[in-house]
Amino acid sequence: MNIVIFGPPGAGKGTQSNYIALKYKLHQLSTGDLLRKEIKIQSQLGKKISSTIDSGNLVSDDVVSNLIEKFISDGSLKNRLIFDGYPRNLNQAKNLDSLLKKYDQKIDLALKLSVSLETIKKRILSRKIHEKRSDDVESIAIKRFETYEKNINSVIEFYKKSNLLRVVNGEGSIHEISTEISDIIEGNKG
Q1: Residues 85, 111: contact at Cβ < 8 Å?
Q2: What is the CATH number of the domain that holds 32?
Q3: Which domain holds residue 147?
Q4: How far apart are CA 144 and CA 54, in angstroms?
Q5: How far is it, in rounded angstroms, from Cα 120 to Cα 3?
């Protein structure tokens, strides 16, 4: 099973993806982690990514696509992927579809974490204290939320047309959200 999970920055995608990956033995593919890894090793690409993220903008589709194709092409991960925070726009959704078809795979389920901006602000502040991420600044978080909201409707429609979209209430506790997601996945397996 291949799953897409999306929601605004700070919605809990990473936490829920990790939970799903462990429970269902999937490989979590976080574009955020891939991008942060490039930044950490301070490659030329990493420096460019850092500049883009620090200004509150999204990294180009081509950069992200090249990073994720490495995982999709790995035969040991076939139909065992959870895409954490990708796709973020219609072009990425179509590209992911094409990449998966190229490697004889498909998306089985698209989970949208529905969370308000107020909840995101609280989570970002908490995450900044505990994880010390450089992109966890309220002004950047607000800009990233607005950018996400502007781009996501076409992705929602893309997965809705394929009858793959399930909306999850992302306002609850980690456990409540995990339980709702598990129920959706179990219902989708049949």
Answers
A1: no
A2: 3.40.50.300
A3: 3-189
A4: 10
A5: 23
